[in-house]
Amino acid sequence: MVPTNTPFALALSSPYSLIQDIFTRSRKSSEEVPTAVSDEFRRAFPDSETRAKVPYLSRGNLQQLKGKTVRWKGMVQDNSMGNEIVLATLPGSSEPKCALYGADSLTTEGAAGSEAATEAFGAPSGSDLTERSVLYAASLPGRSSWARDADRAALALEEAFSAGGSEGVRSSEAPEASTSSATSFGVKEKVPMSDSSDALGVLLKVYDITAAEALQAGDVVEVVGILDFGPLPSSEWASGSSAADDSAVPEQLHPTLHVLYHDKLADVWSSKPAESSASTSNSAAVSTQTAETTRAALISKLAATLSGDETAAEWLLLALIASIHTRKAPFALGHLSLRLHLPTSNSPSELPALLSHLLPSVVPLPLTLKSLNDPSISYPPHSLPDSTGLRAGHLQLPRGTTLLVEEAISEGKLGAHGLSNLECLQEVVGRSELGYRFPFNPAPFMLPVDLGVVILCQEEALSAEEEAKGGKKALSGGLIKCDVDVLVSPSSASSSAAKTEQSSNSSDADLPALRNHLLRARQLARTLAVPAVVAEEIQKDFVASRSSASASTNASAAAAAASASQEDLLRQMDVARLLSASRGRAELTFEDFKKAKEMDQRRVEELAVRRKVGVGKQK
Questions:
Q1: Most buried among 185, 231, 451, 475, by the most CB within 10 A?
Q2: Against a cut of 0.85, is the pTM above it?
């Protein structure tokens, strides 16, 4: 017979009983109770095996889990909703009874100071009250199905890889239940990609005020809490009406988690608290031979979606593992935004399907004149003077998300709204900052972001006359300035193999190994060491490049100039770091720097030639 009074059983099925027991035993003040509760529930769920038994919150099981302990992973969308004054203990009771974590509403069917509470227990005194922070969180935008399965099974992504990827991870999610008309899946305007079938917005009631203040918009959090339903805290005063005025209209209730404890994660790739992920990343190194083999397989798979061009695929690999390791204004070091110029024969739709099998979170962004000007589409998060508070923009995304922009701008007029969207996107791509817009504040409030950025733009087809003359179209795209532009050149020798490879992308058994390689390479890139002797060699090479650039008069002048500025050196250093990390190395080598410099010069030469011979108007 399974015991029902163990800490684990109580924490899972009777959380309020365990909280009352903690409250009675500890006799702590209301400010100290959240720490004691957090410690006790962490001890009850010490590892992934026990956490996996805690139901994972989703749209399908909302109604069945009210009042139960649940897990959930999401992004902090709004941390400006303020604090609430609530009952800490029920007033007038013969022995202290804890009213935190929603216990007050279960007992009195009302909030602190309500008529029900007053009639049942008498008016609360100051010692009976405390405060809690209210935040709004949204499900992780663009979450891939295999990563969602790992989240539900309480597996780190590394564990999901060893379990065989999405095929080896299964969740026991309850079938979708009918939801009351007064209950929502969250505030649509506050949930990025709210049209997704798994999108969910949740109010977080955090009783540890200090821990809540450490959370910023865009942070990834893993939460264990008690599920409840409640209104937005600002709904009454914002509408200018009282509860009595709206008695005939059922109040909209939203999923609410009374947070027992939470962990702030480094990014969408991480399963460890942010402060511990950096200390463990040095263990990510694997044997060079294994890394090189997996790296070659990954480049081959990426090339299959890029007309067989392995050079372009290598650039794409580097962009996928890039993340910011140092910020020195105005530079965000480690970031590598990439634009791929696709030939007319290369459909832009092939790559997104593959990336969704390789990356944990991929968000597509069609970039057209129509979408930029559409008043219903806002890239920056913005606040309006209504009950909703901060509204999510299309670019309010958590760290580590890959933004896949499909650039297809036609001729036309860009309005004020479109220009604002475009400026916001350029800030994200160029400066790794996202501007939050607020009323009566002309300048946006800038917060750092760390997104992978891949821009796809496709050539226009040549006319029959141009094709007969062997002409080439001028490069399209370029509306958004990025770090690296790369031409994708079809490889006739490998086109047939590429199509075969692409057709089996989603079912290959090597996907877990490829995902693991990407994860480890990202970890290595952030902590990669630069030996003093290598730094000295790079410095000498830079001085020599600057000297030769001014004297260069041949056809490679453009490539030589590409090595002459500090900005170019920083870019090539970032590329070199990513090359070393992609090969499983924990230290930068001068050979990788030389390879990075050669890759950079070659792509500059190709772009210069293409711009020179292209026909048609440059966009």
A1: 451
A2: yes
